[in-house]
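Technical annex B. To support the medicinal chemistry partners, we prepared a structural model of the target in complex with S-adenosylmethionine, based solely on the information shown next.
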Amino acid sequence: MGSKTKATPKRSGGAGLSWRSIALVALIGATLATLAMRPALRSFVVGHVSVLVSGSQGSADALDPDMYDYEGHMADRKIFEVVALPGKGKGAIAVRDIKRGELVLREKPLLVAPDEETPRAWVNELFFNWTYSPSKRDTFFNLTHSHLWLDDDPETGLPPKVNIDPPTQTPDERFWLTEAILTTNVAAITLNDAPLRGLFPRFSRVNHVCPGANNVNYEWREEEGEMRIYAVRDIKKGTELGHSYIGQVGPRAARIKHLEETYGFTCNCKFCTLDAEATEQRDAWAAEWKALETDFDARSGNGTLPGKEAIRIVRDLWELSLKLDYTTDRARFSEEAGLVAIAHGDKKAAVQWLKLAHKYFTIEVGVDSVDAERVEELLDNPTKADDWASKERLTLDGPDKAWFDT
Ligand SMILES: C[S@@+](CC[C@H](N)C(=O)[O-])C[C@H]1O[C@@H](n2cnc3c(N)ncnc32)[C@H](O)[C@@H]1O
């Protein structure tokens, strides 16, 4: 999935990417005690693994009129509806014009799963708890799934037949189906820095478009215990909402392969359907973007990136992001440039870069996000920042004025 940024929380890249490769998260002892205090989540211990399910219908959060619970309440303020879309299963369609920066969804998780191949004991415990909450169980099984991730039958060479009807299926079949639904629908989240997988039934109806073609962005809010979606462009009523399952910009062939293997569909977003020449050009820009990002992160990480060069790279990244129509990471690099300017004691450049960062954080993750608030604090008084003028004084370039209008 996409690179971890210093400023922004880790992006999940849509549903469940890369979780297979990460070690089993066992939440025990103190961690569990903390989790159990969260009002929206209740935890159960199975062996060394915790199972978290959303709060009871009677919880205070369930009455919050602005937040979806697992049944998709908030009907009176509906911004999008979930409808069947040819070739895509279901998808989310705007039922009114949506302004850029608008909050489109807040949703609590139906469940939080370990960030690993799902333990059988976890599935058994989940079903035990859902005996008392059939509507949660039904919400879960109504979700779509792509692969069942089963080996072919050695005798026939065909995928095994699996009964997907929960009441009549065997424990094995139930396990496989649960695993498949999780793989297709979860988003990577964190609780107390532990990587986990969250399942959000409304959120998970949003289909994929490749980076740059997305009109919404999502953000897991650990503090609030909720998933959020923000509009990153003006969206006309009747338009499908789309975000990227694959994090950052990358070459078309790799995107298509990954999506086919992981989710079983062939992407036909506006960037996957460009002609050969335009695809080659876009792939080249994406490769350039990635190389600059890697270089910036490596050298700023080990303290060997000189200030002027750092600003030049951020400006190049910005230019490329405009060519790619890629908005993700604009805020992050603008903040990085602001921090460089602070370290070199250039208040004017720092303020310009931080204003740009604040604008984009506000659009992409909300004005009340940790990111936007952190930048706002710096903006209030850049000369009071810890490392103000900690390096040689330099006069640095700011962002182009026109970038504020993008
Ligand atoms: C998280 S779900 C999205 C909602 C889903 N379409 C549904 O019916 O609930 C992911 C699955 O949706 C389908 N999907 C997502 N984006 C798609 C796209 N751009 N084109 C075709 N199918 C897509 C794939 O089957 C994928 O495995």
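Notes passed to the chemistry partners:
The chain has two domains: 19-263, 282-405.
The chain is about 35% helix and 15% strand.
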